[in-house]
Design goal:
This protein has 107 residues and is an alpha+beta fold. 33% of the residues lie in helices and 26% in strands. A 4-stranded antiparallel sheet has the order 2-3-1-4. Strand 2 and strand 3 form a beta hairpin. The chain is globular and about 35 Å long.
């Protein structure tokens, strides 16, 4: 399966608490315009606040490979997860779940 590079047009900082439909509708539109589904999607996260947050993220993506890169100062960990996704709605579902973890930034 051919892997696409991360598109710079899709950038999320923190997904706000709650179910803000405008943000997710906008994200879905962007995903469908720049990504090819089904395909491999690269999730990128920055985690602060301890290793328990990584375990919380692993609970959402249990069978997927995590590529972890700690910062030089050890204050945060950058995580990339490559996952086969069927459509934009699956991507958004993962982002919604990850957005409930305190101390995670979604890129």
């Amino acid at each position: 399966m051919e892997e696409k590079k991360i598109n710079k047009n899709i950038e999320l900082t923190d997904i706000p608490d709650g179910d803000n439909k405008d943000i997710y509708a906008n994200l879905k539109e962007k995903l469908e315009s720049v990504e090819k589904f089904p395909g491999v999607y690269n999730f990128k996260f920055i985690i602060t606040g301890g290793l328990d947050k990584i375990q919380d993220l692993r609970a959402i993506l249990p069978n997927d490979e995590f590529i972890e890169q700690p910062s030089k100062t050890g204050k945060y960990v950058s995580i990339t997860v490559k996952k086969a996704m069927q459509n934009a709605d699956e991507v958004i579902a993962v982002y919604k779940q990850a957005g409930n973890i305190k101390g995670i930034m979604i890129l």
